[in-house]
Specification:
The complex is a heterodimer of chains A (470) and B (461).
Chain A lengths: L4 H8 L33 E4 L5 E6 L5 E9 L13 H8 L9 H10 L3 E6 L3 E9 L3 H13 L5 H19 L2 H14 L11 H5 L3 H11 L5 E7 L3 H12 L23 E5 L5 E9 L8 H12 L5 H9 L3 E10 L4 E10 L3 H17 L4 H19 L2 H13 L6 H11 L2 H11 L6 E6 L1 H8 L6 E3 L1
Parallel strand pairs in A: 2-6, 7-11, 7-12
Antiparallel strand pairs in A: 1-2, 3-5, 3-6, 4-5, 8-10, 8-11, 9-10
Chain B lengths: L1 H15 L15 E4 L5 E6 L5 E8 L13 H8 L11 H8 L3 E6 L4 E8 L3 H13 L5 H20 L10 H6 L3 H4 L6 H6 L2 H11 L5 E7 L3 H12 L22 E7 L6 E7 L7 H13 L5 H7 L9 E4 L12 E7 L6 H18 L3 H17 L4 H15 L4 H10 L3 H11 L5 E8 H9 L6
Parallel strand pairs in B: 2-6, 7-11
Antiparallel strand pairs in B: 1-2, 3-5, 3-6, 4-5, 8-10, 8-11, 9-10
Helix pairs in contact in B: 1-14, 2-5, 4-10, 11-14, 11-17, 12-13, 13-17
Organism (chain B): Luteimonas viscosa
GO molecular function (chain B): metal ion binding; metallopeptidase activity
Protein name (chain B): Insulinase family protein
């Protein structure tokens, strides 16, 4: 039936995943050993900076007949949104491809379709990424279309109005998802007043969007000297640079620069929130605290620690809560890094009767990671798992482009992609324990529960006083 | 309309070419097939671009053939396949694969159950050993059965009971559209049936359906066909073939009377609609035409229904389409083409259905212009290649095509079948399949909204 939890884990897994808890089962005597590892392929990245400051990176590949583009723009995402306009950046990104000086929304969609690809954009904390892909024979015109969307969006009145109306309905639909409410509450508990807390739209922020505000944001946020174009696929670097120069060489900033994002908190007073959901048959549990930016020296050991604890199917929390106890369809934990701060998040959806028991198991796993060194075999298995994730995602050219661009947005250099696996291999068990003590101390975690309060209140009592929210 | 023109010109250029794609867009996927003496079919697709291997073992058993009083059993059994054997106790399977740098998963569909892994190619031998081991035997024990009954129930809670819409666009449409039990029962299962499953059921299911002669092994990536065939022989060659029970005839004709159902939803905030039509049989000449028609109607922002319902009439928030639980090429019995949309509270299901009917009627009357047809074909070609990029998808897709079509080389024929579809074919498909009589419609409305409607009927009611 709809894919088991494992595929969901696969999707989440670029930086996460695990190895067995407790004493690992003995391996069968007939099981053949792993073969010799082949060297990690390192993406050869051709680089050039255009005179207007736009960086262009090209990763040529021989695989399928497709070219992938990602244009990333720094300081253009949620962190640049005004306090009273949370989630503005996602409407902004979504409307880029809904009209340009040359083409209306329908013509953009049809043109992209005729190239055997698509164009679109999305916002994250630290930036906006505009994506495009096309069959090889349409690589050049697709890059022109991408440039048109990046440089000359018009934010037509009718499209803005329709996007607002649909966003309001989509918000209503999202409000019915327990995970949506849980995420909002956990971000608030983690980041307080910092803009990283404000990534979800509100009715008021949707209503406040106007074509003028979008055009102003475009002028302020989209600057070539704060942008990176990544090209991967069946294209030679010289050709890609030539295409990039033709499409973006005369791109100029239209306004002043948006300010940098202030540093995010590294610690907060933990909170307890219970969001009432009448008749809910499950409790949606989220646990978290502020942590580190991607550029922090702790980041690489943190990837490994997060993977042991809660990345992927074989991680400790999933093995414990799903495989051992049968409390949940899936449990996870790990780090989410951003440019000026990051966070820890753990969670699971569990049936009502085991809400308290599940929190207990999460915290027991947090403590075990701090109290006991990860056994050698588990550490080794987890390192191989991270290396495998690198190989698997590098096999996909769109994923390579997106990873390079998102690393760049959070401040990581291009060689981070190739260097993190060797650096992961150097991490020692004592470092993992130190990470656990620093970031997984149960005392320091906020807890958010979305569920049926009367059914679960008693079980939450040992975890402090929960503020009830409707 | 000016913006139209650019696209039209571009598409005309495409049309002028003898084939619908430029030579630089061609990608012949290597496919090598061999059948072992015990009936296991092996498909290998070599690709040395990365030291990674995708593995898929697809069994010819799915929800259609599960026991009558054991709804959800095929899927429960899929979970049990990860719970260990006498040789490899619980936990070994995941540990060896993740410890080898890999990921694994499984899924259950009407006509097959698949088990997939992707890993650095250094892990290929342990992976094949483990797959062969669980094909040979399982550790049938009460503890793992109970544990996975609980996990499956949590899966149903998270995906159905605690979820707005509850998967009605892929579950309930099938319960209502099909006539025969094999096609219309709940493949997720009732809690009662799931709880009633016994170890004897598990043993019998494994014996009957999980033999090598009812399976295809797909390998894609860092391996030659010779290596792949030799490894398959080494690890699977000793497993003996087992008789597979003959299944019932689950074929059905098209429906002859429309079904309209309204369902209340206690968790949703926004109403939704699913419209489903029975598809042509696998291998029918109408199948490629349905693929083109489905894309024309509902594939992406350029599609007729997106432009007509989300833009245009502004009735819907989104339009998605589904081909049952699989794709338009991966079924072996009755399946559905389904259009799913969230619609605005300011309108109703009748208006959405009428708008879809108008778009379909236009196609029936006028067919599809050359420029649009060319665009759709280009998109479908690209989609087909995209679905083959990841080694694990490639291994899995080829194994499924081998199982369902008896020939994995279909992978290289489908682009040509799509290319051959004419406007008349699309018209014929629309008038044959997308009829009111062949349609099942579910209108899924938030409970509160239904209550309000009942309390205050519209003036013209």
């Amino acid at each position: 039936m709809k894919t088991s939890m494992k595929l969901l884990a696969l999707a989440l897994c670029t930086t996460l995943s695990g190895a067995l808890s407790a004493a690992p089962a003995a391996l069968p005597k007939d099981l053949p050993p792993y073969g010799e590892d082949k060297p990690l392929p390192v993406a050869q990245i051709g680089k050039k900076t255009l005179p207007n400051g736009l960086e262009v990176w090209v990763v040529p590949r021989d695989g399928m007949p497709r070219v992938d583009y990602v244009l990333a723009v720094r300081n253009a995402g949620f962190a640049a949104d005004a306090a009273d306009a949370p989630g503005f950046a996602s409407l902004f990104a979504g409307l880029l491809a809904e009209g340009t000086a040359q083409r209306d929304s329908r013509a953009i969609a049809e043109t992209a379709q005729s190239f055997g690809g698509s164009v679109g954009a999305s916002a994250s904390n630290d930036g906006v990424m505009v994506y495009a892909d096309a069959l090889t024979s349409h690589a050049a015109p697709m890059l022109e279309l991408l440039a048109e969307i990046v440089r000359t969006p018009t934010f037509p009145e009718n499209e803005v109005r329709l996007a607002q109306a649909n966003a309001l309905q989509a918000l209503k639909a999202a409000e019915a998802q327990p995970s949506f409410k849980a995420t909002r509450a956990l971000l608030a508990a983690t980041y307080g007043d910092h803009p990283y807390a404000r990534v979800q739209q509100t009715e008021a922020s949707i209503a406040g969007v106007t074509p003028a505000a979008l055009r102003e944001a475009h002028a302020l946020r989209f600057h070539p000297d704060r942008a990176l174009l990544v090209v991967t696929g069946r294209v030679a670097p010289t050709e890609a640079f030539r295409l990039a120069e033709a499409a973006f060489g005369d791109w100029k900033a239209l306004g002043a620069e948006a300010p940098d994002t202030p540093a995010a908190p590294r610690s907060v007073t933990p909170s307890r929130v219970l969001i009432q959901r009448d008749g809910s048959v499950q409790s949606t549990l989220r646990i978290g605290r502020p942590a580190i930016p991607a550029t922090d020296p702790d980041y690489v050991p943190a990837i490994l620690a997060g993977t042991v604890l809660g990345g992927g199917f074989s991680s400790r929390v999933n093995q414990n809560l799903r495989e051992d106890k049968g409390y949940t369809y899936g449990a996870s934990a790990g780090f989410a890094p951003s440019r000026v701060g990051g966070r820890v998040q753990a969670g699971a959806d569990v049936r009502n009767e085991v809400t308290g028991a599940s929190l207990k198991e999460f915290f027991a796993e947090f403590e075990r990671l701090a109290d006991e060194p990860v056994p050698e075999q588990e550490l080794l298995d987890t390192k191989r798992y991270v290396a495998g994730g690198y190989l698997i995602s590098n096999q996909l050219q769109g994923a390579v482009a997106a990873t390079l661009a998102s690393n760049w947005l959070v401040g990581l250099p291009s060689d981070f992609l190739a260097s993190y696996v060797p650096r992961i291999r150097e991490v020692e068990a004592a470092q993992v324990q130190a990470i656990a003590r620093r970031y997984f101390d149960p005392e320091q975690q906020s807890i958010v529960v979305v569920g049926d309060g009367p059914a679960i209140a008693e079980q939450l009592e040992p975890y402090g006083e929960f503020k009830a929210v409707e | 309309m000016k913006p139209y023109r650019t696209a039209w010109l571009l598409s005309m250029l495409l049309c002028a070419a003898p084939a619908f794609a430029a030579d630089s867009d061609r990608w012949d996927i290597p496919v090598a097939v061999k059948k072992l003496d015990n009936g296991l079919t092996v498909v290998v697709s070599e690709d040395r671009s990365s030291p990674v291997i995708g593995v898929s073992v697809v069994y010819g058993i799915g929800m259609r053939l599960e026991p009558r009083n054991r709804t959800g059993f095929a899927h429960l059994f899929e979970h049990l396949m990860f719970e260990g054997s006498e040789n490899a106790p619980e936990g070994v399977f995941d540990r060896v694969i993740t410890g080898g740098g890999g990921r694994n998963n499984g899924s259950t569909r009407p006509d097959f159950t698949n088990y997939i892994e992707i890993a650095p190619s250094s892990a290929i031998e342990p992976i094949l050993w483990l797959e062969a081991d669980r094909m040979t035997m399982l550790d049938f024990n009460p503890a793992t059965l109970k544990n996975q009954q609980d996990v499956v129930k949590e899966e149903i809670r998270v995906n159905v009971q605690n979820q707005p819409y509850g998967g009605f666009m892929w579950l309930d449409v099938g319960f209502n559209a099909f006539e025969k039990w094999e096609n219309n029962h709940d493949g997720y299962g009732s809690f009662e049936d799931l709880e009633s499953a016994t170890l004897d059921d598990v043993k019998a299911f494994h014996r009957d359906y999980y033999g090598p002669n009812n399976a295809v092994l797909g390998l894609a990536g860092d391996i030659t066909p010779e290596q792949g065939f030799a490894l398959a022989e080494k690890y699977f060659g000793e497993i003996t073939a087992r008789p597979v029970p003959e299944g019932p005839d689950f074929s059905e004709g098209l429906n002859t009377k429309e079904k309209r159902i309204q369902q209340p939803d206690k968790l949703a905030q926004v109403p939704a609609i699913a419209m489903s039509w029975k598809m042509p049989d696998r291998g029918s000449r109408d199948q490629p035409a349905m693929s083109v028609l489905g894309a024309l109607l509902a594939n992406g922002d350029a599609s007729r229904l997106y432009q007509g319902l989300v833009k245009g009439r502004e009735l819907a928030l989104n339009v998605d389409s589904l081909y049952g639980l699989t794709s338009e090429w991966e079924y072996n019995g009755p399946t559905l083409f389904t259009v799913f949309a969230l619609y605005k509270p300011t309108t109703d299901a009748d208006a959405v259905v009428a708008a879809v009917d108008e778009e379909v009627a236009k196609i029936v009357a006028e067919g599809v212009d050359n420029a649009t047809l060319a665009r759709i074909k280009t998109q479908l070609l690209a989609d087909w290649y995209n679905g083959m990029e990841s080694f694990v998808s490639r291994a899995d897709n080829l194994a499924k095509l081998q199982l369902l079509w008896g020939d994995a080389n279909v992978a290289n024929e489908i682009p040509g079948w799509i290319d051959a579809v004419s406007s008349q074919d699309v018209q014929r498909a629309a008038s044959t399949y997308l009829t009111a009589a062949n349609r099942t419609v579910i209108d899924r409305v938030p409970e509160a909204m239904l209550a309000a409607r009942d309390a205050a009927p519209p003036a013209n009611d």
